[in-house]
Design a protein that fits this description.
This protein is mainly α. It has one domain. 57% of the residues lie in helices and 0% in strands. The longest helix is centred in the middle third of the chain and has 22 residues. It is elongated and about 45 Å long. It starts with a helix and ends in a 9-residue tail after the last helix.
């Protein structure tokens, strides 16, 4: 599908560390891997592999915005964990605007 599957070490989330402060690097990486896997499965299931690819750079930007929002909410409400509904809502909120082309 793209080079991420061949070389997963290429993601640059660590370079955005200051933007995702308050988030454990392992959590950021796990969220990236989870989203990438879910998106890949959808593309395969819908037989879109010839028409759609995943942009690692766009997904990285989505995660930076996502974790920035999540950390802001945690700080504002003085809470440790976000409920599952909010997690998925913020994922969708940041993923949907990023899909302005066949490259997600």
């Amino acid at each position: 599908m793209n080079s991420y599957t061949d070389n997963p070490e290429q993601i640059h989330i660590s370079s955005y560390k200051n933007l995702v402060q308050g988030s454990d690097a392992a959590v950021v990486r796990e969220r990236f891997d989870n989203l990438y896997e879910r998106m890949s499965e959808f593309i395969i299931e819908e037989r879109l592999t010839e028409k759609v690819c995943i942009s690692v750079a766009n997904l990285e930007q989505v995660l930076v915005a996502y974790f920035d929002d999540i950390n802001r909410i945690k700080s504002f409400h003085d809470i440790e964990l976000i409920n599952t509904v909010k997690i998925h809502s913020y994922e969708a909120f940041w993923l949907l605007p990023a899909k302005d082309s066949p490259t997600i």
